[in-house]
Amino acid sequence: MLPLTRGSDEHVIRRPVHHRRGALRPALAARVQRAVLGIACWLLLAAVVPRAQAEDGYDLWLRYRPLDAAQAQTGRSHVAQLVAPAATPTQRAARDELRRGLRGLLGADPGTADAVDRAGALVVGTPASSAAIARLGLDLDGLGDEGFVIRSVEVDGRAATVIAANSDIGTLYGAFRFLRMLQTRQPLAALDLRDAPALDLRLLDHWDNLDRHVERGYAGQSIWDWHKLPDWRDPRYTDYARANASLGINGTVLNNVNASAQSLTPMYLEKAAALAGVFRPYGIRVYLSARFSAPREIGGLDTADPLDPRVRRWWRDKADEIYRLIPDFGGFLVKANSEGQPGPQDYGRTHADGANMLADAVAPHGGVVMWRAFVYSHEEPEDRAKQAYSEFVPLDGQFRENVMVQVKNGAIDFQPREPFHPLFGAMPDTPLMMEFQITKEYLGFATHLVYLGTLFEEVLEADTYQQGKGSTVAKVIDGSLHGHGLTGMAGVANIGSDRNWSGSIFDQANWYAFGRLAWDPHASARAIAGDWARMTFSNDDGFVGPVVDMMMGSRQAAVDYMTPLGLHHLMGEGHHYGPAPWVEGGPRADWTSVYYHRATPEGIGFDRSSGGSDAVAQYADPVARVFDDPKQVPEDLLLWFHHVPWDWRMRSGRTLWDELVHRYSRGVAYVRGMRETWSGLAPYVDAERHAEVAAFLAIQEQEAQWWRDASIAYFRTFSQRPLPEGEAPPPESLEHYRSLSFPFAPGN
Ligand code: BDP
């Protein structure tokens, strides 16, 4: 038998070798020598090139990895000691987070002290909790309960930094901000920062069922382990609260909007109360989705009519019961008379009647009702995009003070791109709350890298012109346009039981961006992406620049390869995975793709102009005029508002057909570019996270290609035109794409 080649000796069957103790045989000695040399070289390399340790993403953006030596030195000189009270749970949360963060970032625990006795102290507290802060007499007016200041000051003649607020929660938010400054390498000298959230309610909506299935969830099961609650409180709940508090998120709706009445039974309320107890120190209130027919399903009544005194009494009693268990319960979120859910219209009542009944039940306890405007009725033959506006505008001014109408960013349904919802600005007497979707139901699930910060920003910056120029959506929801005191933003959560929380590392950025924009809807998506990339991966400019650029273009890329030029709702039926522009038939037209794209041999697009469904009329001038004119409408929305001939001349000079194909290919090319960019960034990222992102980008490229090919194969049966020069034809037949089926696609 031939000897095995050198270097593959792991395949050699080893026999025990007998030799004198202490004396190595020459060959073995040489091997040991080589090994020692190898290890020495490796150690030397490891010292010079800091290799990131394997990470699974659990730590999110709160990784607190060591700063480099010089930065750590500067950091230590500003945090020579920590003077922070620890008398309440929230104070302890702030102090513990600072210690955890400082230990990680600076490599040293500054320890805690009761009073400042050296230069470079970090002093945390409120005028009530800290004598030092009380003596400073800082101006904390206008910060409310959640704002804070971070300032470089002198305490008893010694240089110090203070994190001060009117309440413990404000100091917790300030603590997280200070840590972010360290994490993102901000200067720590001469600080004078003052910040407070622009919106009152900054909420995650979990579409989580009691059996732990997450509707439209792509990150595993629900993190709420209902079966083991209330006795087992998974430590993960605390990390959830920390992550949210680090962004200023202050509420969580625990259960799906397609709600089970069981959530309101004593057993489940006790479980919700246990979660509320974990979240409370972090300033996070618990809310519940309420099933409108609960009085019938669990209350023994034969009606859920909101004007029936027995029903009203049942909800009042239910609210009292909830508040006995959860004194700071936030309130109810309601999906009513939408997609088969029960609601007041079942009894001939209006959305206002339903919302007000619940509002009256929670009002004595300070609760709110978030009533969703995502409605489109079964009977209504009207363009679905118009229905919410038609139903809700006439109700403006009829809601109680503690009701907010929660409006999705667009009028159809969380599509890759939609024009802003026409309700924004159109209900001046009702506080409107924004609903974004963080989970990527229509944007490639967990494997597509699509940064939603730009989608959120685009909507928030959109000008409704409802009160003249500058009436942006952000000003509608921050209350400043119509002078509302109650304001809010909700995001449909992308959180699940996966170790990395969101199903992918880059989906964490969407949770992050949502939280930051809920705190400040005027913030910049690019700046937020930069902070996230620094905190999540690396502060190296060689990394941050390319990653942020890649993120910033990623949403447009998804629009391009899925639904370019204003196309929408062409995803796989039910699960919404992959392309299916051919979907037709079934129970209702507006659940099909053909309803939305309306392709014919003449042209393509949904005519919502004044000559069509006239959805444009729901916008204020001049928005309505611009949208109504196919020559003026932004081309990204062309087919949303217009049915246009295939030879329509685009601004690029191409025909519509050629432009459509060009956009599909452009989207795929962008993903290919992201793969290249990412592969060049390996030196900055630990191997584990780098490999996962790379693998997901490969999936994304395949699926982007699939979207392009299937869409082109389908639409060319209408356009009857050749592909533009240089464009590859779809490799498979249309029948092939149509035959693909995914009965077990997640989230459905
Ligand atoms: C749609 C989802 C569906 C939700 C619905 C909603 O497909 O699962 O229940 O939105 O927001 O996008 O109520």
Automatic annotation (TrEMBL):
<feature type="domain" description="Glycosyl hydrolase family 67 C-terminal">
    <location>
        <begin position="503"/>
        <end position="726"/>
    </location>
</feature>
<dbReference type="InterPro" id="IPR029018">
    <property type="entry name" value="Hex-like_dom2"/>
</dbReference>
<dbReference type="GO" id="GO:0046559">
    <property type="term" value="F:alpha-glucuronidase activity"/>
</dbReference>
<feature type="active site" description="Proton acceptor">
    <location>
        <position position="441"/>
    </location>
</feature>
<comment type="subunit">
    <text>Homodimer.</text>
</comment>
<feature type="active site" description="Proton acceptor">
    <location>
        <position position="413"/>
    </location>
</feature>
<dbReference type="InterPro" id="IPR011099">
    <property type="entry name" value="Glyco_hydro_67_C"/>
</dbReference>
<keyword id="KW-0378">Hydrolase</keyword>
<dbReference type="InterPro" id="IPR037054">
    <property type="entry name" value="A-glucoronidase_C_sf"/>
</dbReference>
<dbReference type="Pfam" id="PF03648">
    <property type="entry name" value="Glyco_hydro_67N"/>
</dbReference>
<feature type="active site" description="Proton donor">
    <location>
        <position position="339"/>
    </location>
</feature>
<protein>
    <recommendedName>
        <fullName>Xylan alpha-1,2-glucuronidase</fullName>
        <ecNumber>3.2.1.131</ecNumber>
    </recommendedName>
</protein>
<keyword id="KW-0858">Xylan degradation</keyword>
<dbReference type="GO" id="GO:2000886">
    <property type="term" value="P:glucuronoxylan catabolic process"/>
</dbReference>
<dbReference type="InterPro" id="IPR005154">
    <property type="entry name" value="Glyco_hydro_67_aGlcAse_N"/>
</dbReference>
<feature type="domain" description="Glycosyl hydrolase family 67 catalytic">
    <location>
        <begin position="182"/>
        <end position="501"/>
    </location>
</feature>
<keyword id="KW-0326">Glycosidase</keyword>
<feature type="domain" description="Alpha glucuronidase N-terminal">
    <location>
        <begin position="60"/>
        <end position="178"/>
    </location>
</feature>
<dbReference type="Pfam" id="PF07477">
    <property type="entry name" value="Glyco_hydro_67C"/>
</dbReference>
<dbReference type="GO" id="GO:0033939">
    <property type="term" value="F:xylan alpha-1,2-glucuronosidase activity"/>
</dbReference>
<feature type="region of interest" description="Disordered">
    <location>
        <begin position="723"/>
        <end position="748"/>
    </location>
</feature>
<dbReference type="InterPro" id="IPR017853">
    <property type="entry name" value="GH"/>
</dbReference>
<dbReference type="GO" id="GO:0005576">
    <property type="term" value="C:extracellular region"/>
</dbReference>
<keyword id="KW-0624">Polysaccharide degradation</keyword>
<dbReference type="Pfam" id="PF07488">
    <property type="entry name" value="Glyco_hydro_67M"/>
</dbReference>
<comment type="similarity">
    <text>Belongs to the glycosyl hydrolase 67 family.</text>
</comment>
<keyword id="KW-0119">Carbohydrate metabolism</keyword>
<dbReference type="InterPro" id="IPR011100">
    <property type="entry name" value="Glyco_hydro_67_cat"/>
</dbReference>
<dbReference type="InterPro" id="IPR011395">
    <property type="entry name" value="Glyco_hydro_67_aGlcAse"/>
</dbReference>
